[in-house]
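Action item from last week, closing it out:
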Amino acid sequence: MNGRAMKQSLLILILTLATQTVVFAEAVSNKAYKKRIELLTYLRELEPIVKNFRGEDPEGNPSVLNAPEGKEGFRFKKYNEAKRIYQEGLQYYFEGNYVASYQRFLECQLGVEKMTEELSQLYVLRAEEMMKVAMERKNANNNLDKALLDISIEYGKGSYFRQDVMDQPREAPFSRRMYDPKEVHYVYNKYAIEKNMELGYRHLGLAKDARVTALKVEKNLEKHQKLQPSHRKYRIENYFGAINLARDSKANAINIFKLKYPYDNYYLNNSQAKSEPTRDDNGQVTDGQPVKVDGVTYDFSKNPYVRFDQRLQAMFDVRVPEEYRVDHADTKGRVYDIDSNNLVFLKYDQERKKELNVPNKPAPTTTGQTTAP
């Protein structure tokens, strides 16, 4: 090979290597850009989740929302760590160092995968627990409180209540009513209650299937294969699918509570914030008890942020047991503690707070609603 031919060969080799370098740089920049948008979506969706379910602090106690560094819940700590890594990736990205940026984004993706795996299990377990509790009696001392199966048996078409009591024509006031009028809502709500049970368990089953699908990804790989970013993306999306399906199941459980206990929110309509008086079989009246919302009782009927319709915020809806009101807020994408501060304690409306004599927020406890699972 003469000198001229050698020079041409070297020139071709240099141009080829230069072209490959440019192509590689473009490919990594594109990957980094796509991963940047993908992770931002995940972090945004995780924010209300980890604020509602922060986990225990290092000492094993439930954590508060604005806990100082070192005292935050373990889920919130992992979320902050993922955000820190993502921010480092952004810095490299805007510097033009796409390789380092992409590596940081992959680290963040791994952290998000671990968080969503654990959170999806938590959501499935809480949804299953809420469905079971919603099907049973809420107050064992109340004769009008019925389990879901009892409602199906006692108030369905062909039952004694329907045939021999409610559906019999009577001439008022000469014929006395032979049933408690507070039972009638079971007749009208029976189908909706049963349908919510059906949908709740269907959503729960789909949530479990989505989580199992995500867990099987690694098992389905060949021995020589390793998890790739595309595999982790698929798993994360299935974990989020399980979380959202579990939220749907929780929403069905909440609907059952609302349909079974329509009178529990009576306290919102009276200035004393008391529950509705009850009457026993002998006609003796028992006065209602003051209702506490997030540890506070005051005249909720004057609260400008209370709405007696579908917009009613979770913390005011005592038809739902106290331990599940954070789930009630979470199904709407709300943060329970932030809503509580703004709507119960009127954090940003100090003048109205003085007018209504709203007390200050109680100190955090291990059993109050100021803490989260």
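Closing note: The radius of gyration is 29 Å.
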